[in-house]
Amino acid sequence: MITHLPVFGLFLGFFALLYGYIKKDKGVKIVSLAIIIVAMVGGWIAFQTGESAEHAIEKVAQVSHDAVEEHEEAAELTNVFIMVLGLASLVALFGELKDKRFAKPTVIAVLILSVISFYFIAHTASLGGEIRHTEIVK
């Protein structure tokens, strides 16, 4: 499902980018940034499809309207971080490919933004899981 792409893609992309940064491996950094960009596009798609999914899921018995709304509100904030991280990753990718002056600071920025974004993505995913898996409700 597309909703899992930002969670696992960012996790993989972050650690691969960290490895590439530490080892100064341009190829690994380029692939890692591409993974993060794909994951963020997946997150944006998941966000865009959320409204129709909300209407479909609310017709199912045993689904809490409050849980759906809480997930939706978290997704709206998470989407902002996804967009910022996606744009930063594009700039970092440009830096790695074309302009060395941007490479190091933008990769560092992407690493920092990845940690922050992952928190919001994981929180939103957890809230989404609570909608369908009531056994994990706090």
Fraction of residues in helices?
A: over 70%
Helix/strand class: mainly alpha
The CATH architecture is: Up-down Bundle
- From N to C, what is the helix and strand string? HHHH
* Mean pLDDT metric: 90
Helical region count? 4
Number of domains: 1
What share of the residues does DSSP label as strand, in percent? Answer: under 5%
Features:
mainly alpha, Four Helix Bundle (Hemerythrin (Met), subunit A), about 140 residues
Short description, anyone?
By secondary structure, the chain is mainly α. It is built from 4 helices and no strands. The two termini are 24 Å apart.
Please render the helix and strand layout as text.
Elements: H1 5-23, H2 26-57, H3 65-97, H4 100-132
Helix pairs in contact: 1-2, 1-4, 2-3, 3-4
Please provide a written account of the structure:
The chain is an all-alpha fold and 138 residues long. It is built from four helices and no strands. α1 packs antiparallel against α4 and α3 packs antiparallel against α4.
